[in-house]
Amino acid sequence: MKNIFKSSIVILGQMVIFNKAIQKDRALNSLINSPMLALLAFVGVYILFTYVDRLNSKTSILQKIVSLFFAICTWFMTVYASGIDTINEVINKTVGTVYSIFFILSFFMIIELGQTVLTYYYQNKTKENDAKKPIICLFEKSPFLLAFVILSVIWLLIALSAYPSSFMGDSLSQLKQYFAISPRKAGHPVLSTLFIGNFVKIGRFIGYPNFGLFLYTMTQILFVAGCLAYSINLSYKLTKKSTLLFGITIVLAIIPMVNGTIILATKDIMFSGFFILFMMSLITYFVNHDYYIKHRLFLLMAISVTFMMLFRYNTLHFVGLTLVVYIIGGLVMKKKFYKVTSITSMMILGLIVGTMGNKLLTAVYVEEQPTPNRREMLSLPFQHTARYAKYHDKEVTKHDKDVINKVLDYDSIKMNYDPYRSDVVKATHNEDATSKEMSDYFSVVQKQIVTHPLLAIESVMASHSNLFNVNQSLNGYYYNGVLMSGDENEILNTRKIGIKDNELALKLNSIRVKLYRIFDRLPVLSQLDNYAFYILIMLSVFVMWIRDKKYYLAGMVIPMGAFIGTLIAGPITLGYIRYILPIILVSPFLLVFCLSTKDKEVESQEETTRTRRRR
Q1: Which DSSP string corresponds to 82-94?
Q2: Backbone angles phi, psi at 31, to 5 degrees
Q3: Are residues 200 and 496 in contact, defined by beta-carbon separation less than 8 angstroms?
Q4: Given CA atoms 40, 42, 44, 47 in this order, what sign does their dihedral have?
Q5: Residues 109-130, buried b or exposed e (16+ Cβ, 10 A)?
Q6: Is Chaperone among this UniProt entry's keywords (predicted)?
Q7: Which DSSP string do the residues of 420-480 spell out, in sequence order?
Q8: CB-based contacts of 521, cutoff 8 Å, min separation 6
C-alpha cells in the first residue's frame, strides 16, 4: 500500500504543466491528459519502488537534503521553462502551490531511489563477472589504447560533420586579435589566443585557413581523448572495475553534450583536458598515495594546474579555494599536506608558474586591458540588482539609485534585464568605480536581499538552477558552423581571416542535431545527456563519504565544488555545456572510486584474517 501511494505522488508530480496551472479554471487541464501513459508509468514506478525496498538500504539526512535540493532546483527551472517569469505567479495560487508540492515530492522520491541504489552498491562489495565478454577482456589487456581509439574515432567523425569547426563569438574575438583586426586584450588568456591563431595561420600559409581551424579541432579532440584514456587506464589499475570503466568510455563517446561540445573551437576544451589530469592526480593522491609518489604524479599535478591557469583565469579562484580548505582540513585532521610532493605544494607551484606565464605573455602580446574586467566575477549581485529594479522599482529610493548608477546604468538594466544571462547587465558596469562606490553598492544589495529574500533566491535560480535540473538539460549544441549568426560584422571578419562555412557540413550538422534531439527524448539516454545528472553523481559521492565518516576521501570532491562555484559567479551557465564539461568528464571516475571504497576495505579485512590464520 505504501508503494502504491508513493507511486501515485510521483506520477501526479510528473504530469503537471505549470503555465496552465496559473490560469483561471484550468486546474484539471494543467495535468497531462494521457491515462494510458499514466497507467504504464505508475506500474513501472511501483515495480521500481518494490525492487528498491528489497535492497534494504537507507539514505542519510545529508543524502535526503541533496535529493530535496535537486528537486527544488528542478521545480524552479521547470517553472521558468514554462514561460513564467517568477514563481510568485505559481505559489500565489492554491492550485499552483499544491501542484508544486506534488512536483517537488515526485522528483525528491525519484532522486532518493537513485541514491538508495547507490548506497546499496557502495555498502556491498561488487564483484566483476568471471565470464566476461570478449570486448571486456580486450579492454583489460589495453585499457588506454581501446579507450583512446573509441573516443577519438567517434569524436573525429563528429568533427568531420562540422568541418571546419563549430565556432562561437569568443573564438572569433580571439582570432580578430591574433590577426590584428581588433586591439589585443587579456580578456581571454593569451596562450589560448596564440594557440588557435597559430593553427589558422598555418592553414592560411598553405592556402586553406579552414583546414588550419580543423587541425586545431583535431588537436584538442585527440588531447582530451588522450587525457580520458589515461584516466581510464589509471582508474583500472587502481580499481580493476573494467566493465564499469568500459561503460563510461562508451557513454562519454556517444552522448551529444560531450561529442557536440568537444568539437567546439574554444579554450574551454583544452582546459577540460588539463582539468581531467589535475583531478586524476589528486584522486590518486587520496586513494593510493604510494602510487602517486612512485609514478611522480605530483609533477602531473603541477603541470596541469599551470596549464589550467594559462587557459582559464578562474583556475586561480577554484584552486585557491581548494587550497584554503585543504590547508585548514590538514591542520584539523593532522594530514601532512605541507610536504614538497603534496598536492597543496604542487598546486601552489602550478599557480605561481601559471600566473608568471600569463603575466609574461600579457606583457609581450597585449596592447590594452592587461587584466580581465572586474565585472566577470560580479554576475550574481548585478543580476540581483537588475531583477530588483524590474520587480520592485517603486521601492528603490533616489539615494539607492544614485549609488547603483555609479556602478551600473540603472535605467538600462531595468529595461534590458535577462534573467538567464548577465551579459547585458554587466556591459553597463563602470570599471572605474572606486572602492568606496563599490562598497556602497554592496550595502544597497545587502539591504535589498534582507527586504526581499525570495527575489534574491530567484535571481540565482533563474540563471543557474539548470545546473541542478534533473528533469531536462537545456542543452545548447554548437552546430552553426563558423558563423553563429548572420551579423554583417562577423561575416566581414571571418572573410578577412579566411575561414568560412562548408555547405555540406552545414547540412550534416542539421542532421546531427536532429539526431541529438531524438537522443534527448529517449528514456535513460536523455538522463545520460543531462549535465545535472553528473553534478548529482558528484554530490551523491561526496555525501556518501561524509555519512561514512570518510572525510579524507570526500576531500577529493572539493575542487569540483569550488569550480562549480566559480561558474555560478560567472555570467551564464544555461545551455553552455562548454563551461560544465570538466565536471561531466570527471564525475564518472568519482563514481568508480566510490564503488571501490568497500571493495578495498573488505579486501583489507580478508588479508588481515588470512594473516592471523597463518600465525
Answers
A1: TT-S-THHHHTSH
A2: -110, 140
A3: no
A4: negative
A5: bbbbbbbbebbeebeebeeeee
A6: no
A7: T--HHHHTT--TT--HHHHHHHHHHHHHHHHH-HHHHHHHHHHHHGGGG--S--------S
A8: none
Which residues does 487 contact at the CB level (< 8 Å), separation at least 6? none
Nearest to 116 by CA among 172, 180, 209, 48: 48
Q: What is the pLDDT of residue 185?
A: 82
Nearest-angstrom CA–CA distance, 535 and 62: 16
Are the beta carbons of 473 and 530 closer than 8 angstroms?
yes
* Spatial CA neighbour of 567 closest among 346, 390, 380, 423: 380
Query: Which residue's C-alpha cell is 538500504?
Result: 57
Phi, psi torsion values for 166, nearest 5 degrees: -80, 145
Residue 524, class by beta-carbon neighbours within 10 Å (0-12 exposed, 13-18 middle, 19+ buried)? exposed
Task: Kindly state the cell numbers that stand for 209.
Answer: 585557413
Average pLDDT, the chain: 87
Rg (CA), the chain: 26
Half-sphere exposure of 382 (CA within 13 A, CB side): 32
Rounded to whole angstroms, how far apart are CA atoms 134 and 140?
A: 10
Identify residue 201 by its one-letter amino acid code. K
Q: Which residue has the cell 527544488?
A: 72
Distance CA 148, CA 229 (A): 5
Helices and strands per DSSP (H, E), number in the chain = 31, 0
pTM: 0.91
Residue 535, Cβ neighbours under 10 Å: how many?
23
Distances (CA, A) of 270 to 90, 151, 195, 245, 568: 42, 16, 10, 23, 21
The 3-state DSSP class for residue 264 equals strand
CB contact burial 164-203 (16+ within 10 A = b; e otherwise): bbbbbebbbbbbbbbbeeeebbbbbbbbbbbbbbebbbbb
Per-residue pLDDT tens over the stretch 451-492: 999 999 999 888 888 899 998 776 666 666 666 455 677 777
Q: Give, in order, the Cα–Cα distances in Å from 118 to each of 8, 54, 114, 362.
A: 24, 14, 6, 47
* Gap between the Cα atoms of 183 and 198, Å rounded: 17
Residues 490-548 have pLDDT tens digits of 777 788 888 888 888 888 888 888 888 888 888 889 899 999 999 999 999 999 999 99
Contact assessment for residue 539 and residue 64, using Cβ atoms and an 8 Å cutoff: no
Contacts of 174 (CB under 8 A, 6+ apart): 188, 192, 193, 196, 197, 267
Alpha-carbon distance of 598 to 605, in angstroms, equals: 10
Please, are residues 577 and 562 in contact by the beta-carbon 8 Å criterion? Answer: no
Residue burial 580-609, b: 16+ Cβ < 10 Å; e: rest = bbbbbbbbbbbbbbbbbbbbeeeeeeeeee
Cβ contact 318:350 at 8 Å: no
Question: HEC string of 106-140?
Answer: HHHHHHHHHHHHHHHHHHCCCCCCCCCCHHHHHHH
How far apart (Å, rounded) are the C-alpha atoms in residues 152 and 368? 39
Residue % of the chain over a pLDDT of 90: 47
